[in-house]
Amino acid sequence: MNIRYLLMVAVWLSSVSLSRAGAPYFSNYDQAARQEPVRGVVAGKDGTPIPGATVRSLSTGRVTTTNDRGEFTLQAAQGEKLVISYIGFSQQEVTVSGSSLRITLTEGSSQLGEVVVVGYGSQTKSDVTGALTQLKADNIKQGVNISVDNMLQGKVSGVRIAQSSGEPGAGVDVFIRGVGSIRSGSTPLFVVDGVPLSNDNVSAGGPNFGLGSSEAKNPLNFLNTSDIETITILKDASAAAIYGARGSNGVVLITTKRGKKGDPTLTYDMYVGTSSVIKKLDVLPASEYRQAITDPAYDHGSSTDWQDVIYRNGFIQNHNLSFAKSTNTGNYLASISRLDQDGIVEKSSFKRTTARLNAEESFFDDKRLTIKMNLTASNIDETGIPNGNTAGSDGQLIIHALMANPTRSVYDDNGEYTNFNMNAHYNPAYLLSIYDDKTNTFRVLGNIEAKLRILPGLYYRFNYGIDKSTSERNSTIYPNVTDRTPNGAYVQNNLQSLTTLLDHYLTYNLAIRKHQVEVLGGFSYQQFKFSGTAFGMQNIANQGTGVPPEYNPGYSGIPTTPSGYAQENELQSFFGRVNYNYDNRYLLTASLRADGSTRFGEDNKYGYFPSFALGWTLSREQFLKDVTAIRDLKLRASWGQTGNQEVPNKITQASYSLTPSAGYYLYDDLALVNGVIVNRTANPGLKWELVEQYNVGLDFDLWDSKLYGSLEYYNKTTKDPILNIPSEPLSPTTTVWKNVDARIVNKGFEFMLGSQLINTKNLTWSVDVNGATLSNTIKDLPVSELYSGSISGPGLSGVNANIYKSGYEAGSFYMLKHMGYDKDGKDIFEDKTGDGVINADDRQIFEGAIPNFNFGINSQLRYRKFDLSVAFIGQTGGYLVNNTALDLNINSLASDRNVLKKYYDAGASTSNAVQLSSLYLEKSDFLRMSNLRLGYTFSFNQVPWLQSFNIYVSAQNLFTITGYSGYDPLVNTTKTVDGNQSLGVDYTTYPAAKTFLLGATIKF
């Protein structure tokens, strides 16, 4: 081998190395020697770095792309011309002068030029091949939103938000592209600044004193919504598959604010306001009630609107102070906030204090090492009311207020609360007075991330995160004159949780001429620990006697047996992804994640979740080059699989217990020895629920953004669902946890259409509308049916409203069909069996709770210094079981209680039996103005230290157009049966609120 040949090989290898740094190989070695490395930064007008921008030399053809900090390195000679381009920005030409450049691109209006957050990184929207939507803080921070999930309402196609309750801080159900599981819920995975959160409760639930048990609060309440920069929703499997076993219900990525380029900023924003019940139910007033009753003993001589007794105007105030700064090597942001919200029901409240610190700094030569830290701490104090979702017809505060006789008074002649002297019905004001429920939750979420540039384009990242919370809930019912725990009781529930995250991953970026490749590979480990304890006292001292039991539980009473539990599970994952871009025209994304979970047995410890997606940017093709109407046009298609591990711990293992019922006498009848019973049959073969999804999408920007948006078709199928079904003969238990061959299919069409109708210096107006259709079907269920949606009411114990059955949508309704009333006001039901007797066999399946169309409409108008925004949300095609109306049926008139006016006006007979039927099945269609905001921004040109002052007024839930007779058509009370999720049941839910705010934002 001669020396010349070796020299040619060396030159070729060096040229490939230079190509990696941004230069393609070339033949003139002397010319290469004259080149010098030129480093630069590409940013927008506000100083925000632009990753993925293309930097090309006009003379040599060398090309490179900027990294996620907007930085690039390119071999170039002095005086050489470079062209920098990026979709959504105007192309710019610069001349090399020196070894360092800073290029500022002028932003265009293209929607495809935005930088969006994806799993373990970021991309330009033009490079995205999956179905995702990113929301910016300015577009979603409207009205009172205690938790981040409420901010998504009406903003993203295919995402539906339903309140489990209107109580401040209450849980929220988030459905992304339908209902994909029978048992495991539909909650998506939330990731905050790179830390995936557990969907388990972080606050303690409440005990049942005969008033129903209370659900734990929303685990996302700890985040200060003013700290949020962007929210990105990953909807299809291609976008979510990088999160593998936890991505089946979609993924929501939340990033918080950081310091930006420019002068340091100090921002104070606040609002104050008042809330009231969104509507009152139309029960009989005292005057009509007197006409309706036949027994004069039921006229107690007063006139009381009991809804007015328990509802109030709740005061709200929120204050947030933050300061931020960015330097040449890093940035930081610190904030502190306080939110106080009085609920619209007396005594209920939510108070939160949060503090956040985000910091980033770079070290060593050319910012080789970057370290980021995110830390947030929150303290939440909540006061609850006696309104548990598991109560029967005689247990909830709100149902007592609705059924209370309007001729009764709140107080008697002695100034004491009026004693109704009735079983299963009590003075609601009295219930509030004897009940005390306080919860304190302290939570800390933090992570530290280090990024090291090993070689040009090759980065190693390390992420360590913790999520720790402690919660204490003190619940007391004092001795009282009802039959609900009349001797009083106190219970303290404690809950602790700790989640630890450890990520290691490498990213490698390669740009050669028109080819751009990004490779990601990594390892993740997450550990989840939960523990809880409970203790209490019975027969406690009277209210006002001694020290309240929450401060001195041993003061009086009889101790109850303490209880506790602890659980731990782990998730170990390996993941990889490849993004390929050819000439910004042809795009490919492929990913694979392997998850191992301790929730599953040895036979199927690991699950594997692949995805594949293609993109074609048609607007860059020659055949569309001269079509001036098309600014951007991209076609996408994807396929992928994700998993679901949200099942109870240890269900793959057998469970045993000692019990006297299985015991025996060891020595004649002298001593009973506890026997062993099997509680759960082992199934080491249990495996993940699998969700397979297809998606086809089109992104477009036409006529200078006069029309832009996206269209999507998706088909999402859940396979191998995990159910607790009847076991085979000779099994030690009657049921067993198994994967079944059933499928749950969700499919539909989504769209987002927007327009910059006016875009001038003094006037801008943009409107967007989003909507989604949904068809849900259960197929091949191996059992005849499953039930859920337990119904509360007299004589309705064990009655369920939801049915899961092959050929029908998840959570369809199962009940008698009400045909009207006969001439005597008696109920008429359809006799399905034709035997002349109406019984359970005559029940029928009705359309379910899942709306087949959801939509949102958003408008942003700015005229000079005025800004006006309006938002509407709505849905059609769904139904609700109005369990509240079922408890306010006509026969209440015969028992000293009130009824809904519509049943009396219909001429129904008071002797009608209480039965679940389609009489209480109502459409949940509605159109709601969810937010209206008018603001004005003052400018102070003569005051250099004051940047801006914006003052605004806002109205939330201003009006709702609906035929639903309950408080709110957008509700979903938790009424599960045997772990099967319930859908579309409304039982005396804490109502939604109408809110008016006055707010201001001041920037220094």
UniProtKB/TrEMBL annotation:
Domain of life, per lineage: Bacteria
UniProt keyword list: Cell outer membrane, Membrane, Receptor, Signal, TonB box, Transmembrane, Transmembrane beta strand, Transport
Main location: membrane
Pfam families referenced in this protein's UniProt entry, alphabetically: CarbopepD_reg_2, Plug, TonB_dep_Rec_b-barrel
Keyword Cell inner membrane attached: no
Location of this chain's protein in the cell: Cell outer membrane
Domain TonB-dependent receptor-like beta-barrel, chain residue ranges per copy: 526-958
One cellular-component annotation, GO: cell outer membrane
Gene3D superfamilies in the cross-refs: Carboxypeptidase-like, regulatory domain, TonB-dependent receptor, beta-barrel domain, TonB-dependent receptor, plug domain
Membrane topology term: Multi-pass membrane protein
Signal peptide (residue range): 1-21
Protein family per UniProt: Belongs to the TonB-dependent receptor family.
Protein name: Iron complex outermembrane receptor protein
Species the sequence originates in: Chitinophaga japonensis
